[in-house]
TrEMBL record:
InterPro entries: Cro/C1-type_HTH, DUF5753, Lambda_DNA-bd_dom_sf
Coiled-coil portions: none
Gene3D superfamilies: lambda repressor-like DNA-binding domains
HTH cro/C1-type domain sequence ranges: 18-72
Name the record gives this protein: Helix-turn-helix domain-containing protein
Highest taxon listed in the record's lineage: Bacteria
Pfam families found in the cross-reference section: DUF5753, HTH_31
């Protein structure tokens, strides 16, 4: 079987965790490859996400590495059963950039989601009209087919809130995002009213940082913290000038957990945040 030309972020993550296990055990890739009968190149491909691995082989490697974190091994074993083409986001492959599909997959498998937004309403809480305005203002302009696909994809992502088991979702949003009138007064008002309705849902928490907050948030920027089934599989998604990025090293995870906690502490309570948004709506 030829190597995957473009493994998903989740496939790469599986390989990364296997590499960490091997290195922690002091086992060379040549030794690990010999165990599986494929040699060093096979292990390198697996650890880069270019080759898949069965649950049985994963557990053989874990035992060879004397790995005893049962929860992590079980979580990795679950990933081995996932096949490309199973997720709804796969219908957008070849139409939208791969990182957007990786984001959908990340949200789908998350056990909890926390986000910070400074200038925009969080994507999972956006209306169709608001999302269309955001994507319609990119430079250079998107082709009409991609614009429609991006809007459709964003709306599809929101279906995680309609599942039987909804991951708890919490957003810390700066007042600047609430005051922006993307698309004009009508679109902005509809967006805020939708936001108010969603904030009443038991699985959605919304907190606002008002302009009058004296806390320094100069280092704050948009991010999504997705909790995995075990802490080692947590992931941070950040937006950058070059596109979407994913971070998963422990120093990065620790940094963004601290950032989120700091900004959350600077925000209003959920009830005061709703009242605050209602005031902005009345002012429109």
């Amino acid at each position: 079987m030829p190597p995957r030309s473009s493994p998903t972020a989740r496939q790469i993550r599986l390989g990364t965790q296997l590499r960490k296990m091997r290195e922690a055990a002091g086992v060379s890739s040549r030794e690990a490859g010999a165990l599986l009968g494929g040699g060093q190149p096979q292990i390198s491909h697996i650890e880069a996400g270019r080759f898949g691995i069965s649950e049985e082989r994963l557990r053989r490697l874990a035992a060879f590495y004397s790995a005893d974190d049962t929860a992590l091994i079980d979580a990795l074993a679950a990933i081995t059963h996932e096949q490309r083409g199973q997720g709804w986001w796969e219908s957008y492959r070849g139409i939208l950039p791969a990182p957007l599909l990786d984001l959908s997959e990340l949200e789908h498998h998350a056990t909890r989601l926390r986000t910070i937004q400074i200038t925009h309403i969080p994507g999972l809480l956006q209306t169709d009209a608001y999302a269309r305005t955001i994507f319609g203002s990119t430079m250079p302009p998107l082709p009409e087919t991609e614009l429609e696909a991006r809007v459709s994809h964003r709306m599809e992502r929101q279906k995680i809130f309609a599942r039987d088991e909804v991951p708890p979702y919490e957003a810390v949003v700066h007042e600047a995002a609430l005051r922006m009138r993307f698309g004009g007064r009508k679109v902005a008002r509809e967006q805020l009213e939708t936001l108010l309705g969603l904030s009443e849902e038991p699985h959605i928490g919304l907190r606002v940082i008002p302009f009058e907050s004296e806390a320094h948030i100069g280092s704050g920027h948009a991010m999504l913290y997705a909790h995995g089934p075990v802490p080692q599989l947590d992931t941070v998604q950040v937006d950058a000038a070059h596109g979407i990025g994913f971070l998963d090293t422990e120093p990065h995870l620790r940094k963004y957990r601290s950032l989120y906690d700091t900004m959350r502490a600077s925000a209003l309570s959920e009830s005061r945040s709703r009242a605050f948004i209602q005031t902005i709506v009345r002012e429109m």
